[in-house]
Amino acid sequence: MIAAGAQPMDVEALARGGLDWLVGSARDTGNGLAWAETATATPTATPTATPTDEEPNLSLYSGAAGIVLALLEGREHFGDDRYGDAAQRGARTIAAAVGECDDSSLYVGLAGMAVALRAVDDLLGDPAAGAAADRAMDRVRARFDGTRWDDRWFDLLIGNAGIALAALATGHVELAVLAVEPYLRTTERTAGGVHWEVLSGAPARFHHLSHGTLGIAYALTAVGRAAGRPDLTELALAGVSDVVARNEAGPEGFLVPHSDPQYYPDLVPRHSYGWCHGPTGDAQLFRLLAAVHQDPAWPALADRCWHTVTHSGLPQRLRPGFWDNNGRCCGTAGVLALACDRQVEHGDGLDFANILVADLAARATEDADGARWSNVEHRETPSELAPQPGWGMGNAGIVRELLRYGRISAGGRNAGYAVDWPDQPAAGAARSPGFGVL
Fold first, then answer.
1. Is the dihedral angle over the CA atoms 311, 314, 316, 321 positive or is it negative?
2. Which has the higher per-residue pLDDT, 361 or 432?
3. Which of 23, 79, 331, 388 has the lowest CB atom count within 10 Å?
4. pTM for this predicted structure
5. Residue closest to 288 by CA, chosen among 305, 304, 302
6. Pairing between strand 33-34 and 27-28?
7. How far apart are CA 277 and CA 258, in angstroms?
């Protein structure tokens, strides 16, 4: 276990163990590397063609695309070409599947695959990956029906907003504009502003980043800024106004319900704290708004999110189901990302980041295969789930944040990432040149 005052090299060893487990849990497809959504490391140093009943997952959320980005972080941080080679081999598998993927979205489809492919080209000089990224986005563009891509979801995770952010990340601004313009004509007026039906036919209206109003507002803001479209940024503000009016934490905090009316109230908590449906993710939008609008109201709202997160009791598991996830989406690694942003921008995030890293270290399984994390489903027996390699719930998302924390806590000159995530603004006014090994 790493104590709250851990030295960066301890964290680096843990992160390297996570990277090694990712490499060891891959299987050779004959064309490249692939990962199942749940994986077990092989006992050999080189990935082997291991039979599996589970199809390889290629998505940004839980599959190869998110893992490739974590491996790129490892390669840039450690200067270790083993991780770059694994990332490039993973990209080959993704590229070979571009013509077969039926989903277009950022987190589970082609758009997210394109983000990873573009990053491999940018960092490793792989023009085949870059060409595959363009093919993927061409396929996404061709599937647009004039309003949307997905019959059910109209959000950031699966719908238009996420595709718009992927389009920006891969250099397709005109596609990003096409993706968000339908939000101009599909608004629903509320007492506080506007929101959208993000799940077709559902009475619930979702409020947060992954599936709700704030995720749409993030895309509208980012695209509006990139394309010089004030109508888009103004609509984003109307959506944010609706969500801000729903705050239930008083003037010092920020805590908005998952949805109204509550979506499956017997299963879904009314309040969450992570990136997906809580103030951790909400703060990322407020950071973006602060950069775009230069209005003190936005950093103040980000401060209120931070207050709520740091006073919530996490990462303690106060009751069954309260904080059962270590991952980037709805768990500890996502909060660590915000804590590191806070440290870079305000100098007040490191103490809480230390607590989060100590908790991640205590929950890691370390052995000859490397390091990995398991989440908990308190309603199942046994409750400990199999470890996952991907970004959302698994190693890739955790490792990425541990590496950045290591640089920041060591006072390193680069406090950013090798690859910026589509829905997390780069921290600070400017990024230092290069990405040197500490």
1. positive
2. 361
3. 79
4. 0.94
5. 302
6. antiparallel
7. 6
